[in-house]
Amino acid sequence: MSSPTFDFSEVDDLYQEIILDHYRSPRNQKEIPESDMDVTGINPFCGDEVHMRIKLSGESISAVSFSGNGCSISQASASMLSDIIKGKSLDEANNLYVDFRDMMHGNDLNEDSMDNLGQAEALSGVKKFPIRIKCALLAWSALGDAVKKHKSE
To answer: Which of 40, 42, 22, 18 is nearest to 125 (CA)?
Structure first.
């Protein structure tokens, strides 16, 4: 009796669809008129750019918007990030940044951490292409910088 086989290309196709969906129909691009945190991430090597505005309610993220220009990876990643951090505390958002960064650098994450990343898990395959890791990390690194700056004020 043979064991069932699993076609990993189907997972790759699903992940590719998620990335393309976020690139073609980015979430959270409606401008927030009064934000508490503004941050811009720029990759000088390729010109990718992401600008995020975050509105806080206490220490929780009540609204997020982003705009930017760049490759499908950087823009889809920013879209996913903007969806994932809404409603999270700044500490939770920073933990998501750390988990995402670790995933991009090939570190194994536990199941809960992967679940918390939601659709951003679709970007895990980017780690196979080292030159594209900075693209995927652009918005997340900007978020990490913004949280660090906000906490120090």
So the answer is: 18
